[in-house]
Specification:
alpha+beta, Alpha-Beta Plaits, 3 domains, 4-stranded antiparallel beta sheet, two-stranded antiparallel ribbon, 8 helices, 10 strands, 18% strand, elongated
Length: 339
């Protein structure tokens, strides 16, 4: 049995840098799993997180009028940096992208800017590719400031780089318990290798890449502004219901999934539960009542309906078995003795 925390995080978007969920894991290092509820696609299982590094580049120089002898400009240096960044090439797989999202600076149309700033977002599904991209872009920014100084034979332009967002990339394996617990509730989720399974996203689920953590279905309509989001309300209640069922399946429910000492001992088994199965007719075990706390095999996921612990069965095990594509279970060896 486990405890369940229901948490509403803050600082998710823009410059919040996931401060809410970072604080959650900082203050609760014993958390075993994390499920994020976001969006309206209840048939979607998200088990991958896109990483992101965000920087503010601050260019500074001697502000002057446009008639100055050495018009080295902070804005010109920033323009050089943007031109260099726009020519960077990134791999399509793992998907890696970047953008200069904001620019500002200067005081007047006829003044040489002494201050200019831009916000840079870099992201990738791979931490290795993200770090390569970061190294390349930061080098271009520094070189742009040096070029502006060389252009005017000056040394007044400088640049400062501030890390303002750090979201690590990661992935929860498709055959993990937490993904397996969600799959019966998202029957149309496709298997590993299919681009429809495991949508990526920049959400609180990123921090940290906690062992066994996974994400519930999410989807964002185009656009980031609140007014641009349109959520489909049809059967919206299924989302919270499915999320709760996954949580209960993982944390356990007292009296249902808990294996107490009474149930572990055949002589002390709860007689009322025993009689319910043995004498009270047929009992239907629904898909959301299956127990994933049963021995597993690599490449396969089992969920029990009838076991010794649940029903007192001595020689019967019944449940579901999912065999993943390209799985290689251990071979079955049959030994026959000759009469």
């Amino acid at each position: 049995m486990g405890d369940v925390l229901f948490v509403g995080t803050v600082g998710e978007e823009e410059l919040g840098d996931l401060r809410g969920v970072k604080a959650l894991f900082r203050d609760h290092p014993d958390i075993d799993g994390f499920i994020s509820v976001d969006g309206d696609r209840i048939n979607r299982i998200v088990n991958r997180a896109t990483g992101s590094h965000r920087y503010e580049a601050i260019f500074k120089g001697p502000a002057a009028t446009a008639s100055a002898h050495s018009p080295a400009s902070a804005i010109h240096a920033m323009g050089r940096a943007i031109a260099k960044i726009s020519e960077v090439r990134t791999p399509s797989s793992p998907k890696t992208t970047f953008t200069v999202g904001t620019v500002r600076g200067g005081t007047s149309v006829n003044a040489i800017a002494g201050d200019a700033r831009m916000g840079i977002d870099m992201r990738s599904d791979s931490m290795d590719e993200l770090l390569k991209l970061e190294k390349t872009i930061l080098a271009h920014v520094r070189e742009a400031a040096a070029e502006e100084n060389r252009r005017w034979n000056a040394d007044g332009i400088s640049v400062e780089l501030k890390l303002i967002g750090d979201r690590p990339a990661g992935r929860t394996p498709e055959d993990s318990k937490i993904v397996h617990a969600a799959r019966p509730l998202a029957p149309r989720a496709r298997p590993a290798g299919d681009p429809g399974f495991g949508e990526h996203g920049l959400q609180p689920r990123h921090v940290p890449r906690h062992p066994g953590r996974d994400d519930r279905p999410r989807r964002r309509p185009p656009g980031h502004a609140f007014a641009q989001r349109i959520l489909q309300a049809t059967a919206a209640w299924l989302g919270p219901q499915n999320a709760l069922l996954v949580v209960l399946g993982l944390a356990g429910l007292d009296g249902v999934s808990r294996r107490s000492s009474k149930r572990a001992n055949p002589e002390a088994r709860d007689e009322r539960s025993k009689s319910k199965w043995k004498y009270d007719g047929v009992r239907v075990v629904h898909s959301n009542e299956l127990d994933i706390n049963t021995p597993q095999t690599p490449g396969m996921n089992r969920a029990a309906a009838i076991t010794h612990a649940r029903a007192g069965a001595e020689k019967l095990w019944a449940g579901t078995v999912i065999i993943h594509p390209k799985a290689r279970p251990a071979p079955i060896i049959t030994v026959r003795s000759r009469a």
